[in-house]
Design brief:
CATH superfamily of the largest domain: Copper binding periplasmic protein CusF
Number of helices: 1
Strand content: over 45%
CATH topology of the largest domain: OB fold (Dihydrolipoamide Acetyltransferase, E2P)
Largest sheet: 5 strands, mixed, barrel
Order of helices and strands: EEEEEHEEEEEEE
Mean pLDDT: 80
Helix content: under 10%
Number of strands: 12
Shape: elongated
Low-confidence stretches: 1-15, 158-178
Length: about 180
């Protein structure tokens, strides 16, 4: 049995004694040498390798995993988009954009496709129509809402078994089920 030098009473895990922390915020500056994010507690600046910051830009909402160095500075070890969800009724759609009325807030939200497209019935928002009920997983990049996946319930949504009612409703008692 190997023992973790950081925890002599437990099994060997990584051998890395440096604890990691995380912070969530919007990128205000980014380069191949690091990034700065704006958080509720103020700005945080991290050094980072270029492979950690590659593809990110100012305006992206991210979660940064980091370590604190002995001199008090921070090093980002991982940067990930903060994934969010929205559901609602489609009010407009094209191959590269979609607008919904959010079921929870009643507000209009517009989404665009990312460079890798959107997981739906085809590339872009193919297969999604006006008045469809959708559930969108998205992230914020450069101030835009970028759709990562869209679950299209069709007109009026879908039943719990995935089928639509004959009249386009969600069936059953007439409730949306959301």
């Amino acid at each position: 049995m190997f023992f973790d030098p950081c925890n002599p009473f437990g099994p060997y895990n990584t051998g890395d004694c440096t604890p990691t922390e995380s912070a969530t915020g919007t990128i205000t500056q980014v380069s191949d040498q690091g990034l700065t994010i704006s958080t509720d507690q103020g700005p945080l600046t991290f050094s980072a390798d270029s492979d950690v910051t590659d593809g990110f830009q100012s305006g992206d909402l991210v979660d940064v995993t980091y370590t604190q160095n002995q001199d008090g500075s921070f090093t980002a070890t991982d940067v990930e988009y903060v994934e969010q969800d929205a559901n609602g009724t489609v009010t407009s759609v094209s191959g590269t954009s979609m607008t919904i009325t959010d079921s929870n807030t009643g507000q209009s939200e517009s989404f665009v496709t990312g460079p890798n497209g959107v997981e739906v019935d085809g590339p872009g928002f193919q297969g999604v129509s006006v008045s469809d009920q959708v559930d969108v997983t998205y992230h914020q990049s450069a101030g835009q809402l970028v759709a990562d996946s869209v679950c299209d319930g069709g007109p009026g949504g879908s039943n719990s078994d995935g089928s639509s009612g004959a009249d386009g409703s969600s069936g059953g008692d007439g409730s949306s089920g959301d």
